[in-house]
Amino acid sequence: MSLSLLQPSFLMSKTRSYAKIFIGSRLFLTAMAIHLSLRVAPLDLQQGGNSRIPYVHVPVARMSILVYIATAINTFLFLLTKHPLFLRSFGTGTEMGAFSTLFTLVTGGFRGRPMWGTFWVWDARLTSVKPI
């Protein structure tokens, strides 16, 4: 019985049936999180609405890193086992990682413009080291 659970046809049929539910719930929860963080979160006294952007920017940045790590692990497991379930997550993982990275860059730019007067500061010394 336990060996039949590891058969690719059984696992692929189960993941195919649950994939729509997981994708739909993920999209719904993501939309709710963005709505709550950008619309419902209270304003900061000094920064105003700009204080809400890190509620989206930081989780998306962490998500992009985690998605790329999970994709790398799944790709490594596919190379070891040749199980098609591990290969299935490769295309979706890279697309989600690229979207999360793009979203991180966009929200980071919107955070930088009101705070520092420019969207990007490419010189790290300008932001991290204060002159004596």
Automatic annotation (TrEMBL):
Residue ranges of domain Cytochrome c assembly protein in the record: 5-128
Q: Which Pfam families match?
A: Cytochrom_C_asm
The GO molecular function terms of this record are: heme binding; heme transmembrane transporter activity
Provide the Gene Ontology terms for cellular component. Answer: membrane
Top-level taxon: Eukaryota
Give the keywords, sorted: Cytochrome c-type biogenesis, Membrane, Transmembrane, Transmembrane helix
Q: Its topology with respect to the membrane? A: Multi-pass membrane protein
Matching InterPro entries, A to Z?
A: Cyt_c_assembly (IPR002541), Cyt_c_biogenesis_CcmC (IPR003557), Cyt_c_biogenesis_CcsA/CcmC (IPR045062)
Q: Which GO terms describe its biological process?
A: cytochrome complex assembly
Bilayer-crossing residues are 21-40, 60-80
Q: What is its main location?
A: membrane
Subcellular localization: Membrane
The family line of this record is:
Belongs to the CcmC/CycZ/HelC family.
UniProt protein name: Cytochrome c assembly protein
Organism expressing this protein natively: Helianthus annuus
